[in-house]
Specification:
Blueprint (H helix, E strand, L loop, with lengths): L1 E3 L11 E5 L7 H17 L3 E7 L2 H4 L12 H9 L5 E6 L2 H4 L3 H10 L4 E7 L12 H11 L2 E5 L3 E2 L2 E2 L2 H9 L3 H7 L5 E7 L13 E4 L10 E9 L2 E10 L10 E6 L10 E11 L7 H17 L4
Parallel strand pairs: 1-4, 2-3, 2-5, 3-4, 5-6
Antiparallel strand pairs: 7-8, 9-10, 9-14, 10-13, 11-12, 11-14, 12-13
Length: 307
């Protein structure tokens, strides 16, 4: 698998098979696109390419200034790579680039540069100025430029249509279990461990405080059962997202208590997979009351962490 720099696209003499999209969250609908890409590549035996964009066009064009991606860009690319495409091309999306017409994008990039012989597109993906580039647009152009195109219809899970916006809402509401059922990987946060107030260790619940990057989707405030991945190993734990009202903090804090873990990991990176929402944040009248609640949270968290 090779990542292609937009300014250094190689020559695809034999042609290519490609799919394109934002791939925000990489959910079951995206999975259909990516699995179809693999199957067609096996049949045609020419390079497969995933074409995506960064930043999300909705952010650049101001259509949704508050949009928060489900995964950070690093996680998104890691998941896309797991589908074993031959190439991934991330197009740097700018306001200037958005002015390109659908015809320009198709002819100058998908055909001239990538030599696309087969294009797989999702039912709700559009490209080019004014969102002119649709499945119907590609179908009309396919005979003229000698390529084939197919559309992946919406995917439903337990009677509900899978979409990034719906999953994003579920996460914001704390409905992590349902969100995870729509995603191909569990929802997770990546962060660097930084020093906090170190109050947790004084009451028997030391926490790793996470510094999360900007423009990251943060779930509903509260306590969650989680798995933490550190140096490739998985540790059970519970995550608190909130303002620690018992200690009257003003800044949002994201901290995780890892079970059966006693290493100092300041400055290290931690991946936290959210599994289940346990309870809302609340203010306690005493430290003992807080400790008792944390003991109950730990019991509840362990019930919901199977591996």
């Amino acid at each position: 698998m090779q990542e292609i720099h937009f300014d250094k696209i190689p020559i695809f003499l034999e042609g290519s098979i490609l799919t394109l999209g934002n791939f925000d969250g990489i959910h079951l609908g995206h999975n259909s696109l990516l699995e179809k890409l693999k199957k067609v590549q096996e049949i045609k035996n020419i390079p497969s390419i995933i074409v995506t964009y960064f930043p999300n066009p909705s952010l650049v064009l101001g259509k949704n200034k508050n949009l928060k991606p489900i995964y950070d860009e690093k996680s998104k690319l890691e998941i896309l790579k797991s589908y074993s495409p031959d190439y991934i091309l991330t197009i740097p999306f700018t306001e200037e680039f958005s002015k390109n017409t659908a015809s320009f994008f198709l002819e100058e990039i998908l055909l001239k540069k990538l030599n696309a012989k087969h294009i797989i597109i999702g039912f709700n993906h559009f490209f080019g100025k004014g969102r002119e580039g649709s499945f119907e647009f590609l179908k009309d152009k396919s005979l003229e430029f000698n390529f084939t195109v197919e559309k992946i219809e919406p995917i439903f899970f337990k009677g509900e249509q899978v979409s990034s916006s719906y999953i994003r809402n579920l996460i914001s509401e704390g409905n992590i279990e349902k969100a995870n059922s729509f995603l191909t990987r569990k929802f997770h946060l990546n962060g660097k461990v930084v020093k906090g107030f170190q109050r947790g260790r004084t009451i028997g619940f030391p926490t790793a405080n996470l510094e999360i990057g900007e423009n990251i989707l943060i779930p509903k405030i509260g306590v969650y059962a989680v798995n933490c991945i550190y140096l490739g190993k998985k540790f059970r734990g519970m995550l608190n997202i909130g303002f620690n009202p018992t200690f009257e903090l003003k800044k949002l804090n994201i901290e995780v208590n890892l079970f059966d873990f006693d290493k100092e990991i300041y400055g290290e990176n931690l991946k936290v997979e959210l599994l289940k929402f346990i309870r809302d944040e609340k203010k306690f009248s005493s430290i003992d009351e807080l400790k008792n609640q944390l003991e109950q949270d730990k019991i509840e968290a362990k019930k919901n962490i199977l591996n």
